[in-house]
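Following up on my earlier message about iron/sulfur cluster. Here are the inputs again, as you asked, copied directly from the submission form:
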Amino acid sequence: MKPSIYGLTQEKLQNWLVENGEKRFRADQVWDWLYQKRVKSFSEMKNVNKKTIELLEEHYQIQSLTETIKQESQDGTIKFLFELPDGNHIETVLMRFDYGLSVCVTTQVGCNIGCSFCASGILSKNRDLTSGEIVEQIMNVQHHLDERGDSERVSHIVVMGIGEPFDNYDHTMDFLRVVNDQKGLSIGARHITVSTSGIVPKMYDFADENIQINLALSLHAPNNKLRTDIMKINRAYPIEQLMDAVDYYLEKTNRRITFEYILLHDVNDQKEHALELVKLLKDKRHLSYVNLIPYNPVEDHPYDRSSKQNILTFYETLLENNINCGVRVEQGSDIDAACGQLRSKQLSKKSKAKSKA
Ligand code: SAH
Ligand code: SF4
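Thanks, got it. Here's what our run produced:
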């Protein structure tokens, strides 16, 4: 199967064109058609000569995702379900905030990390997405906005859809380079956030990348016992190792890090947990932000959302101890726009249909 043209960074496209007897500057032309004019076929690239277009058509696809469902929520959130060329499905969510339009992308089909609260973990990993398939999610959303005709642009990206981006590190990095490139979509690095469950060696690599992209760490518990209970990855990379990697990141980049913390009713949402979290983060609180996430209950998982009172107490305990924090605002809950829900619902409908047959 031909790979997606969107997977090539500017440099990789230049090198590929030169290797194939073409001039380096053709890459500028092709990128202009892809990311500024945003055409959907190679043949529309009018100032690119015929031979180059044939070469591109022979080796690359320009549209490898097929949109199968698009659901719009009352708050303007749009959830897209795409089919990949091999028949797998992925989801992408567009959210509207007062600061702009943010897209949440998927990096893998399923996820092998298997956190006990997450819908994506139920479906173990089928495969990694290519860098082109990740970029195409953004392009499809942007094409949708272009067709609406009100000149809106995707301004922010969160890598928080299905999958563990640091378990698909190289493809995720190429994706980030393409969308961040000034000649590409030119989405500012400070407007992009990558979330990881804490694959420690890759956190060191990410710190060394020399890129201003924000990092979020899914911490979710203040001690190893609790974290291992809900995130089995904690056995491989326990909290001490995570915090060493965080310190390295902070020292290397001097950038703030976000700690994500899902509040699960009666599991990790007590005042004592908040106090333990304060202890864990106090030496780096000037560069830390804790994002408290109200849990979206997932069918077949035993957890509930914390009570409003527990969320408030947790939040206030952090604030009283000078830990920067906020509670994540929910988007698109009427269309199941939370992590992994649409895809897992689609799959379970399919498998029910199959078992009836
Ligand atoms: N694999 C990466 C990125 C994808 S998940 C990671 O785990 O960080 C993005 C965020 O959504 C993570 O913080 C994850 O813990 C959280 N999440 C997963 N399932 C959720 C649910 N049911 N409700 C709320 N947040 C959830
Ligand atoms: Fe994978 Fe992230 Fe879900 Fe854990 S929370 S199973 S790492 S997608």
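One observation from looking it over: The longest helix spans residues 131-148. Hope that helps, and feel free to reply on this thread.
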